[in-house]
From TrEMBL:
<dbReference type="InterPro" id="IPR000629">
    <property type="entry name" value="RNA-helicase_DEAD-box_CS"/>
</dbReference>
<dbReference type="GO" id="GO:0005524">
    <property type="term" value="F:ATP binding"/>
</dbReference>
<keyword id="KW-0698">rRNA processing</keyword>
<feature type="domain" description="Helicase C-terminal">
    <location>
        <begin position="548"/>
        <end position="700"/>
    </location>
</feature>
<feature type="coiled-coil region">
    <location>
        <begin position="106"/>
        <end position="133"/>
    </location>
</feature>
<keyword id="KW-0175">Coiled coil</keyword>
<feature type="compositionally biased region" description="Acidic residues">
    <location>
        <begin position="75"/>
        <end position="91"/>
    </location>
</feature>
<dbReference type="GO" id="GO:0003724">
    <property type="term" value="F:RNA helicase activity"/>
</dbReference>
<dbReference type="InterPro" id="IPR014001">
    <property type="entry name" value="Helicase_ATP-bd"/>
</dbReference>
<feature type="compositionally biased region" description="Polar residues">
    <location>
        <begin position="49"/>
        <end position="61"/>
    </location>
</feature>
<dbReference type="InterPro" id="IPR012677">
    <property type="entry name" value="Nucleotide-bd_a/b_plait_sf"/>
</dbReference>
<keyword id="KW-0690">Ribosome biogenesis</keyword>
<dbReference type="InterPro" id="IPR044742">
    <property type="entry name" value="DEAD/DEAH_RhlB"/>
</dbReference>
<dbReference type="InterPro" id="IPR035979">
    <property type="entry name" value="RBD_domain_sf"/>
</dbReference>
<keyword id="KW-0539">Nucleus</keyword>
<protein>
    <recommendedName>
        <fullName>RNA helicase</fullName>
        <ecNumber>3.6.4.13</ecNumber>
    </recommendedName>
</protein>
<dbReference type="Pfam" id="PF00270">
    <property type="entry name" value="DEAD"/>
</dbReference>
Length: 701
């Protein structure tokens, strides 16, 4: 905490001196001088007189004498001036009447008049501003050829390049190098906006500053002004009825559905079928049956056969190189999803966490973007990815940005919470720069659509990830409101770890004739990761858990040098207690995570956990989704979850991307919640091809 600034010291007051006493002769002489020079003001003199003492004649008065006003004689005033004053008053009255009738604009205050004049001068050059892009921090050796080369992808778009002279303000001297700026005028406003959305040029290892001058137009509100206007509207709703805007926001009623006509859709067509990107080899019946049996997958009739290698799909030469360097072959969910999505069909994917679902929709979306015209800064994205938590959004964005340079796309993320990166204004400025893909939580995305910062009319590829969690957290109405902002003929993808009737109803509402693919042998609500070894340890009291936790951590740490462990605790107040007990035995490697911590603090703890090879993270279910940590060896359920799907997502933090993991659960024999979970827990262990302990069957019924 920083101390407040000390108050400024008051200026020392000038000490008041005593008034000067003069003789009667001196006072008469002074009076004669004043009478001879009536226009000269008298010098102010201070006198100190006590409250009880009456002033004497020998004291000079401290009250300054007023200047004598010069009288104007009637004969000195000409008659023409009086006539002109009458004409002026008549003109003022006529102008006042015209202003009242609306035939003349209202008379503005001096400041308002100056502002109106500035706005008028800007409006005269409105066309030029929207066609100009500002380039700053230009090195001395930069020429027009660098600019033409950088914007050559827009095909002869530059009309003129203006460089300031050395005497103008635009030139700065820094360490002997001349830092210049220039204005690039394009042939159209659309070209200028596309150019400003590109990555700034890099010359001599230094990235230039680039900005579209159209934002200087007073008629175009900047993102901060739009957000401020939205907040004022919400305050007005709260004045009418307390909590009204929160209710409307949660229901998704703060935004109106986008209206589309058949003529508009036909005028802006887009391609969904990219069958030419699939170079699939013929698959024999025996090979297909072996694939289904080994990966425990299920897909309906009419579904295209799965791809087995990266050579069978073409996501672009640069993208394919990045993918093949990291992965040897596609995961089952990817093998099934890619042929469906590249043929333009809607898809429902059901798979366990950590099975590669993100790449299953991310890579086809890159092909979808590549075929379309690059959106300008005010047209919004082409791909919208919705996820329930900020942690999952950050994970998805990280995956998409791996291919950002190779695919030539612009990706940004929007989510709520605390911290610098979660600030509305920062995120709005990123949106205003132009983007192709936006990954966001439903609530924050609704905010930007309501304020006008974000438009979704160009979205033709919609992804709803973790749909079951969306349902649990009450985001269904907001997801529906956002889906109604996009094109009705869009391609929609939905992925989920569980499949229940409510999710099925959600799919029928948003998807058109989808193909449902499933990875796992359980076609019901829960499917556990087969790469995770599940163990159940029975306890009788809370103190037994602490002793077992220490013993389990010692065993895990003894197996390998890289043995990160995630400990799940049900209540926030227990997180600090358990973390302190663990830190006593394993100092300098324990961190904690729960919802009461600030976003920046949470991110710092997660980074510390990722960087420590033997780190221990004690967390609530906040870390059950969207947390992708490499080499996470073990997950410990210190407190059993309330529902079985929470259990699936907890243990899904380990055993990701084909690696092996371990899950240890402390089952309290005398806890009603643990006993009520026994039946589902048995089914979950069996779904992974493992044998549940015999004692667990005693708690059924």
């Amino acid at each position: 905490f920083f101390s407040e600034q000390p108050p400024a010291h008051p200026m020392p007051l000038k000490p008041k001196g005593k008034s000067k006493k003069v003789t009667e002769a001196e006072s008469r002489a002074d009076a004669m001088v004043h009478s001879e020079q009536p226009t000269r003001p008298a010098k102010k003199r201070k006198s100190k007189v006590s409250a009880t003492e009456a002033p004497t004649e020998t004291m000079v008065s401290t009250r300054p004498k007023k200047k004598r006003k010069l009288a104007v004689r009637d004969e000195d005033v000409e008659t023409d001036s009086s006539e002109s004053s009458d004409d002026a008053s008549i003109l003022d009255e006529a102008e006042a009447e015209l202003r009242e009738e609306g035939l003349l604009p209202k008379k503005l205050h001096r400041r308002q008049a100056k502002k109106a004049q500035r706005d008028y001068e800007r409006a005269k050059h409105n066309l030029d501003l929207t066609r100009k892009v500002f380039l700053g921090r230009c090195p001395p050796n930069m020429t027009n050829s660098h600019i033409y080369e950088h914007f050559k992808s827009l095909k002869d778009c530059v009309e003129h390049v203006f460089w300031p002279s050395s005497t103008q303000k635009g030139v700065e001297q820094e360490a002997g190098n001349t830092k210049r700026w220039c204005l690039v005028t394009f042939k159209s406003t659309s070209l200028a906006m596309q150019a400003a959305a590109m990555k700034p040029p890099v010359i001599d290892g230094e990235m230039l500053m680039m900005r579209w001058k159209g934002y200087d137009d007073p008629e175009k509100r900047k993102p901060g002004q739009k957000i401020a206007q939205m907040l004022r509207k919400r305050d007005e709703l709260d004045k009418e009825e307390k909590g009204q805007w929160q209710r409307l926001w949660k229901e998704g009623n703060l935004v109106e559905p986008a209206q589309w006509t058949e003529a508009q859709l036909k005028a802006q067509p887009f391609k969904k079928d990219f069958s030419d990107c699939i170079k699939q080899q013929e698959v024999g019946q025996e090979e297909l049956e072996e694939f289904i049996r080994s990966h425990k997958v299920d897909f309906p009739e009419g579904c295209p056969p799965p791809v087995r290698t990266f050579d069978e799909v073409d996501f672009g030469e640069a993208v394919n190189k990045i993918v093949t360097k990291k992965f040897d072959k596609p995961y089952p969910i990817q093998s099934l999803a890619w042929p469906i999505l590249l043929r333009g069909r809607d898809c429902i994917g059901i798979a366990q966490t950590g099975s590669g679902k993100t790449l299953a929709y991310a890579l086809p979306s890159l092909v979808h973007i590549r075929d379309q015209i690059r959106p300008t800064a005010d047209e919004g994205p082409i791909v919208l990815i919705l996820a329930p938590t900020r942690e999952l959004i950050l994970q998805i964005t990280e995956v998409m940005k791996r291919y950002q340079l190779a695919a030539g796309i612009r990706v940004t993320e929007v989510y709520g919470g605390q911290g610098v990166n979660a600030n509305r204004l920062t995120q709005a400025q990123n949106i205003a720069c132009g983007l192709d893909v936006i990954c966001g939580t439903p609530g924050r995305t609704i905010d930007f659509v309501e304020s006008g910062v974000l438009t979704l009319k160009r979205v033709s590829f919609l992804v709803i990830d973790e749909a079951d969690e969306m349902l649990e957290m009450g985001f269904l109405d907001q997801v529906a409101a956002l889906a109604l902002q996009t094109r009705p003929d869009r391609q929609t993808v939905m992925f989920t770890a569980t499949w229940v009737k409510d999710i099925e109803d959600l799919a029928q509402r948003f998807l058109k004739d989808p193909l449902k693919i499933t990875v796992g042998d359980n076609q019901g609500a829960v499917m556990a990761n087969t790469d995770v070894e599940q163990r159940v340890i029975f306890v009788d009291a809370f103190k037994d858990k602490l002793e077992l936790l220490t013993e389990t951590l010692k065993n895990v740490r003894a197996k390998s040098n890289s043995c990160r462990t995630l400990v799940f605790v049900g209540q926030k107040y227990l997180v600090d207690t358990v973390a302190k007990e663990v830190a006593k035995r394993f100092p300098k490697c324990v961190s904690h995570l729960h919802g009461d911590l600030m976003q920046q603090t949470r991110e710092w703890y997660v980074e510390q956990f990722k960087s420590h090879p033997k780190g221990i993270l004690v967390a609530t279910d906040l870390a059950a989704r969207g947390l992708d940590i490499k080499e996470l060896q073990c997950v410990i359920n210190f407190t059993m979850p309330k529902y079985i799907d929470q259990y699936v997502h907890r243990i899904g933090r380990t055993g990701r991307a084909g690696t092996k993991g371990q899950a240890v659960s402390f089952f309290n024999r005398f806890a009603n919640r643990d006993c009520g979970l026994a039946k589902d827990l048995i089914a979950c262990i069996k779904s992974a091809g493992q044998t549940p302990p015999d004692e667990l069957f005693q708690f059924i019924g």
